[in-house]
Amino acid sequence: MQNEYLKHQKWMNHALKLAQVAGDAGEVPVGAVVIDPSGNLIGEGENRKERDKDPTAHAEVIAIRSAAQSLQSWRLDQCSLYVTLEPCPMCAGAIVHARLATLVYGVDDTKTGAIRTVINIPSSPASNHRLQVVGGILESACRQQLQDWFTTRRHQHK
Questions:
Q1: Residue 34 gets which letter from DSSP?
Q2: How far is CA 124 from the centre of its chain?
Q3: Which of 5, 65, 79, 99 is the most buried (most CB within 10 A)?
């Protein structure tokens, strides 16, 4: 169990670094990584909506696309996704469609969380895939990063 938690911390720290890159670029600071069953990084992403002018350019979607390209398969059924913020409905749908085995996230999203906070897409009757979900990994660090970014943005726009 301790080994599993240390693994989760390692990859969430990597996702936090990606989130920092996004935040520094003016994006909401969210980062995501996909890990294969052997523990190798096969995909990563950070929010890029503003930079790419693309409403689907969420960290999770970018990481999933990258992993699918790495594996040359859309089926990521043996892989784990780590993301700093609970996925939204679009990203939860992508997670289900990619058949990810595990989702690990940092902090709940009380506004649009679609894994267990507002709605639960993976457990919905509309979902054709079930996955393991682990929430709260490095929760304080993930929350603080988001709060700091939004506080700075509010002060800049006064």
A1: E
A2: 19
A3: 79
Give the other-Cβ count within 10 Å of 143's Cβ: 15
Does 88 appear as a known binding residue? yes
Query: Which residues of the chain are modeled with pLDDT < 50?
Result: none
- At 105-139, the pLDDT tens digits run 999 999 999 999 999 999 998 898 899 999 999 99
Number of neighbouring beta carbons within 10 Å of residue 43: 23
The answer to whether 60 is a known catalytic residue is: yes
Q: Using CB atoms within 10 A of its CB, is residue 110 exposed (0-12), middle (13-18) or buried (19+)?
A: exposed
Q: What is the pLDDT of residue 156?
A: 82
pTM exceeds cut of 0.90: yes
- The reply, when asked if residue 58 is annotated as ligand binding, is yes
142 annotated ligand-binding residue: no
Q: Is 47 exposed, middle or buried (0-12, 13-18, 19+ CB in 10 A)?
A: buried
